[in-house]
Amino acid sequence: MNALTLPEPIAKYFASEHNPQSLAQCFKADAILKDDGHTCEGVDSITAFLAAASVKYNATSVPFDIEDNDGFHVVRAKVTGNFPGSPVTLSYRFGLDRGLINILEINV
């Protein structure tokens, strides 16, 4: 089985999921995150939202598939944590700009 190769900012995002300071370095200053019915704009809002979710759910994401879709990188990951229905497969739709994430949409 081949190892999954992710673009650098996406690989760093998954490696940093429990480290808000490191996560902040993955995003552009004016990035947008859409997840769980919430929209966050700006890196401070995004990292605060992700840090709160990390504490609440203690989730771990393991990416297993990536495809390109209309200029976006769509990553599917198995997510395990303290939430009903765990584990679940989530879809992460990344838009990249100049080596950073400028949009991220997370869906079931």
Can you walk me through this structure?
There is one protein chain. This protein has 108 residues and is an alpha+beta fold. The chain has one domain: Nuclear Transport Factor 2, Chain: A, CATH 3.10.450.50. The protein has helices at 8-15, 20-24, 43-57, and strands at 27-35, 38-41, 60-69, 72-80, 88-97, 100-107. It has a 6-stranded mixed β-sheet, with helices on one face. A hairpin with a 7-residue loop joins β4 (72-80) and β5 (88-97). The model has no long low-confidence stretch (mean pLDDT 95).
Radius of gyration equals: 13 Å
Give me the strand/helix succession. Answer: HHEEHEEEE
Domain count: the total is 1
Task: Give the strand line-up of the largest sheet.
Answer: 2-1-6-5-4-3
Largest sheet properties? 6 strands, mixed
- CATH architectural designation: Roll
How many distinct beta strands? 6
Summary of the model, kept short:
With 108 residues, this protein is of the alpha+beta class. Helix content is 26%, strand content 46%. The chain is built from three helices and six strands; from the N terminus they run H-H-E-E-H-E-E-E-E.
Would you spell out the secondary-structure blueprint of this structure?
Elements: H1 8-15, H2 20-24, E1 27-35, E2 38-41, H3 43-57, E3 60-69, E4 72-80, E5 88-97, E6 100-107
Parallel strand pairs: 1-6
Antiparallel strand pairs: 1-2, 3-4, 4-5, 5-6
Q: Notable features of this structure?
A:
alpha+beta, 3 helices, Nuclear Transport Factor 2, Chain: A, single chain, 6-stranded mixed beta sheet, 108 residues, globular
